[in-house]
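worker-3 :: picked DDE Tnp4 domain-containing protein
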Amino acid sequence: MVNPRKISKTTLEFILHNWLLETLHYIDPANKSACLHVELLVCLYRLGFFGNAASYQKIATYFHIAVGCGQMYTSRAINGILHLRSQVIIWPDTQGRLQISNRISELPNCIGFVNGALFPFKTKPSFHGEDYYTRKGNYAVHGLIVCNDQKQIMYLHAGYPGSSHDQRALTNFTFFKIIATRFSSKQYICSDS
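worker-3 :: tokens ->
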């Protein structure tokens, strides 16, 4: 089951408030959609389970909704969250980068940190699944995340197979192809490898 402590109340309120503002432009009064809180709850519940427990039938039974509603709510919630990414994942401007580097006084001119993360799959992907097999014994997609000293994500890229090492992903990272536009003189980000 989804652990409610995984998402802070502030984050949940931000998602619901901003999603609601965006969704109001598209709502059809004839469409009897559920409250956005319920749609997000159904989505989070589904994402918190594996296998049969994440089936739409199980969700329908648990929430007393139609099977198709579980799928629709999940899809709408994910699309709503994805729509908010440009408001949440923001590369800082020149002034913002200077503020970050001033806060990280132990590392002069450092404006952030990059690290790899594995986002696991429930099962082996059908297309080149062996490439997604990780050193941890499961299947996953590899992502690189750049964050600042306050744990705010400034850039995210996911899509490399789980077998990829951070270094391989870093060298092919789209972010570094446009590096000149992302940093001021002498600024850098730290990595563990």
